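About this split. The held-out portion is used to measure sequence recovery: a designer receives only the structure tokens and must propose an amino acid at every position. Recovery is the fraction of positions where the proposal matches the reference. Here is one held-out target exactly as it appears in the evaluation file.
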């Protein structure tokens, strides 16, 4: 897989490079990784970072377990191989969390420029738009958010009550339960998990950044078009943003599902008892990465309310004139009847119906389905461990219908 290169703003469809903003490029973590050579001068270094951080977190744990004779079945207690959550965290989630930066970087730099190119941000608001983008860039590049993230990671890994999941490090003490862990367990608890948690919190911070940016844009005097066929006033292109986070949701979901899978296989956990938790995870994933688009709820609803009045009055006027001319036989000389952009009565009614169909937020199936699928896929695979495939498929069909 080739290294990701920084897209040319002009080639990406950004009319003004100053209007583009990457959600991932330029923050403190990015600068640190570039300083140590993990990120090249040009590009994001996605593959090299995915491989490096994955092996950095996982390999010392495995090598120690092999050396201590606790990696494979046949040892006292549970072997490392049986702890699916550890392997999913470092070999699946960490690479996904890093590789997801590529499409998010490319899309965020391209779609922001489309606000101006599409006319949603009128020329009179370009200055304020640039200021909003620049302010968000300064927020992204600040060090304080990363100090907070580092503090959360440190607090999580050093708090004894939540330092590890039940059974998660049985492999490290041979099932003795005496807390005498070796190097592999310590590396996993305090280094490997810190890598994973830092990446997760980084994505949550980027979701916050996106929400802040869209909120600032939504406060501008936007040129929304209530009759736009995207049913979102012309900002329907934002539906492309949430699916970009699907790899992030998939990676986190795999970690959660794999830990439950261990408990189901080795400790008799009834997976159907976790239906509420599974549904909660899917709902939380949707909420986190769809919520930024709610910034446009206010402007869209105001535009819809006003447009219903305006287009309702226009349809009424047009209909009365048609009646006067063709039903009452009066001579009517009004520009409304001859306006080519209005057309016949059916066309004016269609415009009004388009306004009525306008959505409160620019969220539809294109935004929801990929995220929901990414969140649900690990849970469906998990349920297949204890539920016949036929019954599982029937339950899914019933849920969809």
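Reference sequence for scoring:
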């Amino acid at each position: 897989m080739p290294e990701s290169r920084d897209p040319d703003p002009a080639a990406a469809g950004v009319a003004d490079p100053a209007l583009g903003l990457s959600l991932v490029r330029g923050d403190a973590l990015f600068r640190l990784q570039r300083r140590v050579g993990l990120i090249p001068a040009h590009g994001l270094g996605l593959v090299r970072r995915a491989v490096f951080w994955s092996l950095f977190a996982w390999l010392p744990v495995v090598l120690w377990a092999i050396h201590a004779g606790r990696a494979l079945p046949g040892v006292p207690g549970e072997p490392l191989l049986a702890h699916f959550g550890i392997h999913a965290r470092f070999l699946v989630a960490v690479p996904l969390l890093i590789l997801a930066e590529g499409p998010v970087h490319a899309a965020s730099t391209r779609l922001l420029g489309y606000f101006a190119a599409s006319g949603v941000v009128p020329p009179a608001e370009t200055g304020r738009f640039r200021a909003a983008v620049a302010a968000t860039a300064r927020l992204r590049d600040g060090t304080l958010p990363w100090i907070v993230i580092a503090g959360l990671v440190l607090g999580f890994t050093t708090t004894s009550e939540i330092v590890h999941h039940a059974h998660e490090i049985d492999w490290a003490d041979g099932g003795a339960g005496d807390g005498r862990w070796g190097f592999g367990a310590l590396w996993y608890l305090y280094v490997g998990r810190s890598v994973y948690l830092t990446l997760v919190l980084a994505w949550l911070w980027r979701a916050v950044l996106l929400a802040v940016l869209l909120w600032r844009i939504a406060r501008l005097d936007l040129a929304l078009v209530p009759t736009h066929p995207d049913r979102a006033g012309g900002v329907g292109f934002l539906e492309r943003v949430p699916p970009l986070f699907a790899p992030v949701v998939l990676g986190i979901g795999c970690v959660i599902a794999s830990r439950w899978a261990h408990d189901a296989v080795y400790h008799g956990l009834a997976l159907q008892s976790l239906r509420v938790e599974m549904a909660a995870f899917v709902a939380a994933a949707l909420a986190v990465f769809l919520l930024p688009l709610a910034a446009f709820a206010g402007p869209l609803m105001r535009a819809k309310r006003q447009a219903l009045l305006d287009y309702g009055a226009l349809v009424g006027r047009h209909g009365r004139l048609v009646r006067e001319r063709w039903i009452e036989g009066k001579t009517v000389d009004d520009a409304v009847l001859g306006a080519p952009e209005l057309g016949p009565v059916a066309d004016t009614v269609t415009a009004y119906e388009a306004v009525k169909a306008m959505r409160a937020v620019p969220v539809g199936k294109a935004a929801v389905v990929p995220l929901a699928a990414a969140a649900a896929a690990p849970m469906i695979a998990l349920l297949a461990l204890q539920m016949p495939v036929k019954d599982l498929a029937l339950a899914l069909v019933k849920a969809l219908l």
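Annotator remark: Residues 56 and 192 are 7 Å apart (CA to CA).
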